[in-house]
TrEMBL record:
Transmembrane annotation, as ranges: 40-57, 64-82, 102-123
Organism whose genome encodes this protein: Mycobacterium yunnanensis
Highest taxon, organism lineage: Bacteria
The protein's name: Uncharacterized protein
Taxonomic placement: Bacteria, Bacillati, Actinomycetota, Actinomycetes, Mycobacteriales
Keywords: Membrane, Transmembrane, Transmembrane helix
Length: 142
């Protein structure tokens, strides 16, 4: 395995550990939920994080990175669209509803994961486009 391949695998596995950390955060949040529906939704999110962690650990395909990016952006959108929502805590009607520290950590982690996934997708697609252009040029197609 080349040095570049081993660093790509290492980076992918670090991201897998971040996704597992997100799953753990959701598990903690599920413990704070006050309704069965909220608990079920938070557990489903934790399972989705574990799915992404497993996929990142075993493969680094563009599909996996796209799923990671979309899942994390979706979580950020949901969390930021409900400023008073804190996974089971009472929603505040005051204009300046504060976010719990756990929610802030989870949202920040999701933003980091989405940014990393976007960079990886950009690098993968740029290198693939370059390889296709070189192959076409060598065949005389360009």
């Amino acid at each position: 395995m080349s040095r570049l391949d081993s660093s790509a695998v290492g980076g992918r596995r670090v991201c897998a550990l971040l996704a597992a950390g997100s799953a753990a955060l959701h598990a903690v949040m599920a413990g704070d939920a006050r309704s069965a529906v909220t608990t079920a939704v938070v557990i489903a999110m934790a399972l989705a994080c574990l799915y992404c962690a497993r996929e990142l650990w075993t493969a680094g395909s563009p599909r996996v990175w796209c799923v990671v990016a979309v899942m994390n952006l979706g979580m950020v959108a949901v969390h930021l669209s409900m400023p008073g929502h804190h996974h089971g805590q009472v929603v505040s009607t005051t204009p300046a509803a504060t976010t719990s520290p756990l929610m802030a950590v989870a949202t920040s982690l999701a933003i980091v994961e989405a940014a990393v996934a976007a960079v990886v997708l950009w690098v993968q697609t740029r290198s693939r486009a370059s390889n296709l252009a070189l192959a076409a040029r060598s065949r005389g197609a360009i």
